């Protein structure tokens, strides 16, 4: 019983694994069915004598419900596969069989743990949901006959676990249970011998490493093998300097600085235009306010524009001053680029090694032995490389000898002192130590030979001048990289400055647009109020003249006709100065179309038209009044928030052709908080 129970639990672990791995429903059904089979076998053993008389009922109920759960889970997973194959009738039958098994097991389960009941209830809920869906689809679409439970075959199962024989588990014939037990004296002797071997290996390894380091330093002093490679055209530069040059070339190199300078110019122009547009908006609104104040005198009671826009004007002045300083910084950068371009132009060479000098053969040779000198030097370098490879092999051989060196059986077999044994065992390391010593001596002799050959090579090919020219080129490249990085940093500061300023100016321009809209609404309301007051005054004067008593001594028909009520002479518009053009002053001129040039693609939004004062006739009911021509704008918005073409009362000047550049960076914040060493206001 316990064997079947443990097999069921092990198979259940595999079931959880395949579910977590998202395996196909058919495979999950097979694994779940085998879990149920193991639990059914354990349940049968519990219910049969003699175990039925000795186990608590909760054991039986738990195993019974687990068997039903995994049988139902197998039906549920199998039904998912049937649904994918559109076998709706069999899906319904399998779901019903699984739900009936769960219902029967739950009736007989007594004292089962709550987590198991929760798991069973969740499975039953999922099966009921799928059953309702399948029956609805079958009744409306498929119309298939649901087969009887007895006509369906058994669910397939797949076992992933098996029992291990106890005889195999308890077999100790292959075990050496006491192999690690060593007498104390033998263990101490082994420790002493191990220390002696470790000392030999450590000493020889240090000699090998020291010899390799000496070779590296001596070759570097002689500039080998770089000088040979340079003679063959394979020059190189230090790795750190090469990385810096590659970074410069990836970012565009000195040749790409002109494009970034043009970007700075374009951004400066765009910011300048935004400031000018914002200033013109405020000036136009102030001039309108002054014109109405002159026309209506004391009846024009709203505050003056200059008092309301002082803070905005101060910020615009600050922006303009910083923009002027930025333009001066841009000029310094541009001059620095022009002056430093001859130095930085070396960074445009690809590959950068092509800018380095190379060793050339002498123009005239007295004895013609240049090739022999170079060949002998190359041969010596190859021999030196072979000695280095031999040293690496010797070091590996030492480590392998130590790994295989086991004298414990000899120590346990012997009695008394082990000094003779130690000397005999240590002696087997003498040959490899002698090989190491010979390798080091051969290397010293070869280095002396290479030194003499290199002196001849340097004299024939004038290596001293080559080294001086190469070092000079290295310094030029390093200086060019440093200069490029400094200029690039200043340009990035400038780009960030302009983007931040553009964002801040755009916000100020939007504030100005909102302010002008509010002022235009106030203007319109004040004009209407003045018109109502004037109309009331005229009616009052007419009524007063009509009710004046006539002289009783004069017959009514002899009286001179009473003058009509005082009709004021035709007034000019309240939005225009007296005697001026009868058109509304602040409406769009008929002969002047709105701007055809688009606004910059980044920066402040287009400016809205002011709401200016309307013509008095605009607020009177005179159907016979002439209609304005198409496109005529009285300064009123088509709807709230509308932004029309900006009109400043003058013929617009043609703008610079060509599109405005796109902002290269997104501004992290408003300009006034931007920090930059190069663009810091003085």
TrEMBL record:
Positions of the UniProt region annotated as Disordered: 539-682
Coiled coil (UniProt feature): 257-284
Biased composition annotated in UniProt, kind: Low complexity: 551-560, 598-625, 644-653, 663-672
Record's GO cellular component terms: endosome
Primary location: cytoplasm
UniProtKB keywords: Coiled coil, Cytoplasm, Endosome
Gene Ontology biological-process annotations: protein transport to vacuole involved in ubiquitin-dependent protein catabolic process via the multivesicular body sorting pathway
InterPro entries: ALIX_V_dom, BRO1_dom, BRO1_sf
Transferase recorded as keyword: no
Metal-binding listed as a keyword: no
Domain BRO1 stretches: 1-222
Protein localization: Cytoplasm; Endosome
Compositionally biased tracts (Polar residues): 539-550
Protein name: BRO1 domain-containing protein
Source organism of the structure: Aegilops tauschii subsp. strangulata (Goatgrass)
């Amino acid at each position: 019983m316990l064997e079947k129970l443990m097999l069921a639990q092990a198979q259940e672990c595999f079931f959880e694994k395949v579910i977590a791995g998202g395996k196909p429903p058919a495979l999950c059904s097979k694994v779940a069915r085998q879990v149920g089979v193991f639990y059914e076998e354990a349940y049968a053993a519990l219910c049969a004598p003699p175990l039925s008389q000795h186990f608590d009922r909760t054991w039986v109920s738990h195993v019974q419900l687990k068997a039903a759960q995994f049988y139902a889970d197998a039906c549920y997973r199998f039904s998912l596969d049937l649904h994918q194959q559109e076998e709706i009738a069999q899906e319904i039958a399998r779901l019903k069989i699984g739900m009936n098994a769960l219902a029967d097991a739950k009736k007989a389960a007594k004292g089962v743990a709550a987590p198991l009941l929760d798991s069973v209830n969740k499975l039953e809920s999922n099966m009921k949901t799928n059953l309702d869906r399948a029956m609805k689809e079958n009744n409306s679409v498929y119309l298939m006959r649901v087969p009887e439970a007895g006509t369906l075959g058994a669910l397939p199962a797949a076992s992933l676990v098996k029992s291990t024989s106890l005889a195999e588990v308890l077999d100790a014939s292959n075990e050496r249970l006491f192999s690690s037990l060593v007498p104390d004296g033998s263990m101490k002797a082994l420790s002493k011998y191990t220390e002696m071997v470790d000392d030999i290996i450590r000493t020889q390894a240090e000699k090998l490493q020291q010899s390799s380091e000496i070779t590296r330093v001596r070759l570097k002093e002689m500039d080998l093998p770089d000088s040979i490679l340079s003679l063959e055209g394979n020059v190189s530069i230090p790795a750190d300097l090469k990385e810096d040059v590659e970074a410069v070339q990836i970012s565009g190199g000195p040749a790409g600085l002109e494009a970034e300078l043009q970007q700075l110019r374009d951004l400066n122009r765009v910011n300048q235009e935004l400031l000018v547009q914002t200033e013109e908006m405020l000036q136009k609104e102030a001039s309108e306010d002054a014109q109405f104040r002159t026309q209506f005198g004391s009846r024009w009671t709203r505050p003056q524009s200059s008092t309301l826009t002082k803070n905005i004007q101060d910020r615009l002045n600050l922006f303009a001053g910083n923009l002027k300083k930025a333009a001066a910084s841009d000029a310094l950068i541009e001059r620095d680029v022009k002056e430093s371009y001859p130095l930085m132009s070396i960074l445009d060479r690809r590959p950068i090694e092509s800018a380095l000098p190379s060793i050339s053969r002498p123009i005239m040779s007295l004895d013609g032995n240049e090739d022999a000198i170079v060949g002998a030097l190359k041969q010596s370098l190859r021999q030196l490389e072979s000695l280095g490879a031999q040293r690496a092999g010797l070091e590996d051989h030492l480590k392998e000898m130590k790994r295989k060196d086991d004298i414990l059986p000899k120590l346990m077999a012997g009695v008394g002192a082990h000094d003779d044994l130690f000397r005999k065992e240590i002696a087997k390391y003498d040959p490899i130590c002698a090989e190491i010593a010979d390798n080091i001596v051969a290397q010293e002799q070869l280095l002396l030979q290479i030194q003499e050959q290199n002196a001849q090579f340097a004299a024939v090919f004038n290596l001293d001048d080559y080294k001086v020219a190469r070092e000079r080129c290295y310094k030029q490249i390093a200086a060019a990289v440093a200069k490029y990085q400094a200029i690039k940093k200043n340009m990035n500061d400038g780009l960030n400055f302009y983007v931040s300023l553009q964002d801040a100016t755009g916000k100020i321009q939007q504030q100005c647009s909102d302010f002008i809209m509010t002022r235009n609404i106030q203007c319109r309301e004040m004009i209407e109020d003045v018109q109502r007051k004037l109309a009331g005054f005229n009616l009052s004067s007419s009524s007063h003249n009509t009710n004046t008593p006539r002289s009783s001594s004069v017959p009514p028909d002899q009286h001179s006709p009473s003058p009509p009520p005082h009709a004021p002479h035709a007034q000019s518009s309240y939005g225009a100065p007296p005697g001026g053009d009868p058109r509304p002053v602040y409406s769009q001129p008929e002969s002047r179309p709105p701007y055809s040039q688009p606004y910059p693609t980044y920066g402040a939004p287009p400016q809205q038209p002011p709401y200016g004062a309307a013509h008095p006739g605009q607020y009177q009911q005179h159907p016979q009044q002439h209609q304005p021509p198409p496109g005529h704008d009285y300064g009123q918005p088509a709807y709230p928030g509308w932004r029309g073409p900006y009109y400043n009362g003058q013929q617009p000047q043609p703008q610079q052709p060509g599109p405005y550049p796109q902002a290269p960076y997104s501004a992290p914040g408003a300009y006034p908080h931007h920090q930059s060493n190069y663009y810091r206001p003085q």
